Amino acid sequence: MPMTPMRNMFLVLRTQTIRPAVRRTATSLVFRLFGLLIGIVTNAVLARSLGVSEFGQFGVGLTILTIITQLSDFGAVQAMTAEARRNPKLAGHVAGSGICIRLITAFIGIAIAIPISLFTIPNTNAVVLIVIAVCAPLGASGALIALSNARLRPEIGSALTLGQSALWMFAVLIVGFSDHPTAIDFAFAFAMTTALQTLITLAFYGRKSMIGRPTWAVARLLLSKSWPVGLLGLLVTSYYRVGGVLVIGLAGAHEAGLYTAAYKVIDVAQIIPSLIVVPMLPVLIDALAQGSMQLQRLSKAVIRLSVIVAIGSGLMIALFSDVIVRLIYGDAFGNSARVLEVLGLAFVGITLGYVGSTLCFAIDRVKRQIPFVAVLGVLSLMLQPWAIGNWGGLGSAYVAAATEIAMSVLSLTLCAGPLGMSFRSIFGWRYPLFVLIIVCTYFLTKGSFVIGVIVCPIVFVIAMLFLKLVGKHEGNLILRRKSDS
To answer: To 10 degrees, what angle do helices 154-176 and 183-207 make?
Structure first.
């Protein structure tokens, strides 16, 4: 039978397959997109039920919980993912030991964070803060997602996260449509849904016998691997989360509500960098075992693709900032749009910072980040009071954007050298030109919303294709022979 072009195409489809990790990541994307929609609905009901000031107080409670959770993790998830991937036989002990570490550090975090917050943050609701913050130990079960990530099964963690989001949305809808709901009512609903989700997570992994006995040897191994990441996370938290807490103390609950509304959008949008990073660490570990050239090739392609994703996402957030705020929160939160526009720039740095930090962890360069990030954190905290005092939440957003961009450049620079790469070898002249084109187009069309949302995406796509930013090298990460899988 003659080999027609159509038959050739079918033969290619039969001999090639979507890389399993990417296929599972696509499934994870579907779950996370549903989670994104659920998060939008949840935040909309919360904001409209509470009003600007009470929403700001509730947001501060969630911020304190997030700070405690990030500190209690102290790099455990990354360390658990890496060790479970390197030595699958230890996965059960890794799970048990990781949970113990998370529990102990969570209780320590509560003991420190709650008293400091109550005595140093004016305009806060003490009951809301305490009820939400004491949920931190329940988050210890979230470390088990590392086992799924190590097996290149990111969709499992996404499914569990989606379930938690759905439970929280139902709770918010029930409370929100009751008579005169308060921030305290939502706080208790949050605590109950968090406890239920913890039981579901423990039951899922326990049923599969994936939780083993904790051992001091494995715990010590995890701590030795995780402490640089944990310390780095502590420093990052100093400029990423504390800004929102400072706003309520320095500018009041109303301004904090506006800032919280904008930052909630950014928090939800972080499904985008997580989709890059979650399957990235185990794949990088495998590439590291195959040799420096394979690791360099993979790292370069990931960085390039991440730049496109980061700029495209940040651009969309900035373009639709006013629509997003008014659609989700209502006209009362209209002033949040300008804050969200600035945070769209911060989101570019957040996405690239995720990628750079993961690369640094994979090649054991996290310790080198610590002194630089410490300086960034101190500078950010020094600038925050001045910026908030002059421009409120918008000032805090400007500081956050500048710090996130600086952090992303720093992390990419630190990982490029050991990988045998330079910024010139990664980006050449095409990527700086691409950034310049997008920035100029955005500011030239900024005066008209209609022109901006039409012209900017078109220019983005045309520039990306004309400069050939996505080519065969990046495509090979997605399509590969079965024999290579």
So the answer is: 150
Distances (CA, A) of 21 to 247, 386, 485: 41, 46, 10
The range of the structural domain enclosing residue 358 comes to 15-427
Beta carbons within 10 angstroms of residue 218's beta carbon:
24
Q: Could you tell me if residue 94 is inside a domain?
A: yes
Residue 449 belongs to a domain: no
Determine, yes or no, domain membership for 234: yes
> Per-residue pLDDT tens for 195-244?
888 888 888 777 666 677 777 877 777 777 776 666 666 666 656 567 77
Determine the Cα angle at 261 with ends 353 and 39, to 5°: 75
Distances (CA, A) of 179 to 131, 208, 313, 480: 21, 43, 38, 57
Residue 448: how many CB atoms within 10 A of its CB? 10
Asked, for residue 228, whether it belongs to a domain, the answer is yes
- Kindly give, in sequence order, each residue whose CB lies less than 8 Å from that of residue 323, ignoring residues fewer than 6 positions away: none
DSSP 285: H
Length of the chain, please?
485
Question: What is the rounded CA–CA span in Å between residue 376 and residue 374?
Answer: 5
Query: pLDDT per residue over 210-219, tens digit each?
Result: 677 777 877 7
Q: Record the pTM.
A: 0.69
Question: Quick one: pLDDT at residue 456?
Answer: 93
pLDDT digits (tens, 9 = 90+) for 415-431: 877 777 777 777 778 88
The H or E element spanning position 479 is strand 479-481
Please state the domain count of the chain. 1
Whose tokens are 């390039």? That residue is: 304
Q: Please indicate whether residue 15 or residue 77 has the higher confidence score (pLDDT).
A: 77
pLDDT digits (tens, 9 = 90+) for 110-163: 888 888 888 877 767 888 888 988 888 887 766 666 666 656 566 676 777 788
Q: What is the maximum span of the chain, computed from C-alpha positions, in angstroms?
A: 82
